[in-house]
Amino acid sequence: xxxxxxxxxxxxxxxxxxxxxxxxxxxxxxxxxxxxxxxxxxxxxxxxxxxxxxxxxxxxxxxxxxxxxxxxxxxxxxxxxxxxxxxxxxxxxxxxxxxxxxxxxxxxxxxxxxxxxxxxxxxxxxxxxxxxxxxxxxxxxxxxxxxxxxxxxxxxxxxxxxxxxxxxxxxxxxxxxxxxxxxxxxxxxxxxxxxxxxxxxxxxxxxxxxxxxxxxxxxxxxxxxxxxxxxxxxxxxxxxxxxxxxxxxxxxxxxxxxxxxxxxxxxxxxxxxxxxxxxxxxxxxxxxxxxxxxxxxxxxxxx
Length: 303
Hints:
The protein is mostly helical. The protein has helices spanning 2-19, 27-47, 58-82, 86-97, 105-112, 118-143, 151-159, 162-172, 183-190, 193-204, 214-238, 244-253, 259-267, 272-299. One of its GO terms (cellular component) is plasma membrane.
């Protein structure tokens, strides 16, 4: 219950701070800089070195990749039929295809399952994180109206993206250096991601004018909250995959939009208003949809 309250409190605090003008207009940009440059690398360094890789973990590792690819195709077809701008399409790709597998996902797994299932969720989370750090940032660059695309620029942006540096460091450094004494530090950095990211979303979240974006929001959330986990469920059924690893993988893909994807969309000016609405409304709706997915996964006998 505390996790549910914290999520609502952080978003609400951001909205109230904005309405009462308690912070400068662009205060969220400073918060986003902390998240991207400090907190997100801390997440990788906290979790990745402690994962024991086995072939059974291929399913939760591949699920986010499949959801990203299908989401990219989904939004590409939608953008062509609706003739929306490149920036809006880029924002929708980021907010439709990446799941909030950690800050929303972890608490919901603790609420609906148990702590031992977090090991499976971490696999989904880190692959999602890698997608944002690589192909996600490439999509952001290509979609930005302010960036001229070149191979050199793309390579530079990707290789200097702090979360990617954090992921690579977390995979390589433990083979040479014992990072365990720094675990308390990484943990303290990692726990700042969720509250600050949601507070940042609250600072930007304006429900005024949401009706004009309703079609885009509905389309993005239809995929993110319903079609994405349904796709993973269908694949699991075809592969005759059962058990807790499969359930957690599907449940994680049913999470709302990765908040950091909204942060990146804002940084690259990919219709930040729409991106923020997808993130904010998606989180609210997910408290209902994830409960329905939990019932399906536990009582339908499908997996």
